[in-house]
């Protein structure tokens, strides 16, 4: 079965087959690949974007424990099963994030707090569209900020999923890769496809690219075939049990992070990679430990540690030193707890910036305060830093893209946003 292409159906079967082949060959599911990727700059910078879908509660992940209003404002949400991990004289990390805390101490994690998008209406669907498109309002743009930034270049990008996410649309040099529990295609099927596509350049090239991706992943699906009996393959972080793992985390999150590192560390690998982690919509039972939100924080910590380990291992060279990882979400949550021991959709939140190229050990925040009069509409953490300033900074200062191109094409409307002090010199 072929995966449906990410764009509307084409008017004839041959055109559709070309698009489907270019968009991933599920008939060769373990080899899933997209497009005819260009040549990455050997030794060049690497960027990883991890999207936390559902709205991470930034005040749980990075609590402002020394804010005078924190304890009263958060109530049960501000009381953790073990002490929060201190960052500076105002902020701490949730105790489920020890790996990130270690990176902060090593100067490789920076937190951007009280950040968010121009969008303020608190819809997941619209918020994620703005997050990925880089626009100022929902559906003002139909392609993604990272895709537009890379468009026209030979820089490769990869999505660790089965289709191209919006954030990468607009660029042609994009591959996708996702694990599959289907058996490998037979040698006979591959040989038949090769003969079938012999005189069809786009389809032949797509098949060759799929085979190359399979080889780059280590072959045999990169060892990522999930097994219902395997906690690791189900994406569990250490300390989780099947009974406490939240549903959205039952994806191979840890293994996808490791596989992303494998691709990024190759000299001819992608310069940008996108990963997703869902399940952050914490309307209920947010304070439970173990519970859905705390389990997801543990999973996030373990996944980022797996990514770091893969990028700094013996075969990765200095890739981690050249890497920036952005962890972002579509909006934060309400400051106060709701009636079901959770939080509702909010505005301001936190973003994480980590990697060997990051000048970490800092929290960047124009902190607005948590008292009711200091909140947005009396309920949310007020946004004081536009999240697009983070994207702009990384595109220009890390990937080395032209500032005018970034402000005009990749992130239109961002010309007035100052770049942030993120990177090592």
Largest sheet: 9 strands, mixed
User: Which CATH C-level class of the largest domain is it?
Assistant: Alpha Beta
Spell out the CATH superfamily of the largest domain.
Alkaline Phosphatase, subunit A
Number of strands: 11
What CATH architecture label of the largest domain applies?
3-Layer(aba) Sandwich
Q: Looking at CATH, which topology of the largest domain would you report?
A: Alkaline Phosphatase, subunit A
Shape label: globular
Q: Helix content range of the residues, please?
A: 25-40%
Which structural class fits the helix and strand makeup? Answer: alpha/beta
Please tell me how large the radius of gyration is.
Answer: 21 Å
* Overall number of domains: 2
**Helix and strand succession?**
HEHHEEHEHHEEHHHEHEEEEHH
Strand content: 5-15%
Distance between the first and last residues' Cα: 49 Å
Count of helical stretches? 12
Please outline the helices and strands.
Elements: H1 13-22, E1 46-52, H2 58-61, H3 70-74, E2 85-86, E3 92-93, H4 98-105, E4 109-116, H5 124-133, H6 145-150, E5 157-159, E6 174-176, H7 187-196, H8 201-216, H9 253-265, E7 272-277, H10 292-311, E8 323-329, E9 349-354, E10 362-364, E11 385-386, H11 387-398, H12 403-410
Parallel strand pairs: 1-7, 1-8, 4-10, 4-11, 5-6, 5-7
Antiparallel strand pairs: 2-3, 4-9, 8-9
